[in-house]
Fold this protein.
Amino acid sequence: MTLHTINKTPTESSALNNCLASLSDGDALLLIENGVYAAMPGYAELFTRLPASIQCYLLGEDSSARGLNDLNPDFRSIDYDGFVELSCRYNKVVSWF
Amino acid sequence: MIFSIVVTGAPYSSQAADSALRYCKSLLKLEHQIHRIFFYADGVHNASELAVPPQDETNIPSEWAQLAEQHKLDIVVCIAAAVRRGVLDENEAGRYEKSSHNLTLPFVLSGLGQLVEAGIVSDRVVTFGA
């Protein structure tokens, strides 16, 4: 079980698409930095086919720094302590950038 | 748990260094152990003594140095990535006959073997990419 972090918007690089293509059951997604833009409602389509076992998170500091509200409710907002806790809960952390 | 961190972004060019710094502070607060922080590619600019950001902005190079001194952290800069980008310690400045050096203490220049070793020793390696 792997925690995947993504730090780019869906359009500025292929990081998110590559990550989505490589997810396994039980993995988790964490949007950080510009990656949080993927949680805007307009991108919700990207995540509709994810298996139910994939948990989705975003770093709240990065979404509020960008003034983003009313984000995709499938993404749970966490802080850096939460990021550290997820890093421990999953076997490894893979960073897509 | 034992963590190692890899930073490949230069300060002020991407958010990588800032994110890594915040993550490391959280690790220490939650009483995890940081085995090593490895600065690679453009991340070597985090170790420049000569960076002068505006006073109302975070001085990322000095934040790393303070954090490392306070918690006795091993902060290692890839030597090959550093010298080609003009980040030199006194020894390398001498070797290449340069008139000055700019590596902030307690950063040290070393090889990729330090990254490999960090991967072996640590429970988790977390990369902050540019």
Summary: Chain B is about 35% helix and 20% strand.
